[in-house]
Amino acid sequence: MITPADEEFLRRAIAIAAHAVTLGDAPYGSLLVGPDGAILAEAHNTVRRDDDISAHPELKLARWAARELDPDTAAGTTMYTSCQPCTMCAGGIARSGLGRVVYALATEQLVELNPASGTWPTVPQDGPALFDEARAPIDAFYRQDPVSAG
């Protein structure tokens, strides 16, 4: 359920996205709000500027949260973002331990506004293969310290 406070933070994410455009960057913005309601960090898309396909604000903030927040704080933190996170960012968010994401535009709405947003090709994947060989480094790593691995 979206609350009035959520709407205010979403407006901030949209303002970050609008500011990104004035800098020549793509129109996507995000922020993290901690359990106490304070803004912890903000970011916008810098894919073009940084020549880095992973420079989405959601992934940058997920990486920040994973480095800077303890697990309990991360679990109580909400990411507000101008558009629904892509699958790359969603994976990073899940791994970071963030507790919630609130977004303004759904992916389908973004594609309606900008059809090129939905034209990513599907890359064929083949596998699994070489199980016994591939498992050797995995087994070796997780036998070292299963608590801190991963």
From TrEMBL:
CDD domains (alphabetical): nucleoside_deaminase
TM spans (from-to): none
All copies of domain CMP/dCMP-type deaminase, residue ranges: 4-121
Domain of life of the source: Bacteria
InterPro entries in UniProt: CMP_dCMP_dom (IPR002125), Cytidine_deaminase-like (IPR016193)
PROSITE patterns membership: CYT_DCMP_DEAMINASES_2
SUPFAM superfamilies reported in the protein's UniProt record: Cytidine deaminase-like
Name recorded for this polypeptide: tRNA(Arg) A34 adenosine deaminase TadA
Species in which this protein is naturally found: Nonomuraea angiospora
Organism phylogeny: Bacteria, Bacillati, Actinomycetota, Actinomycetes, Streptosporangiales
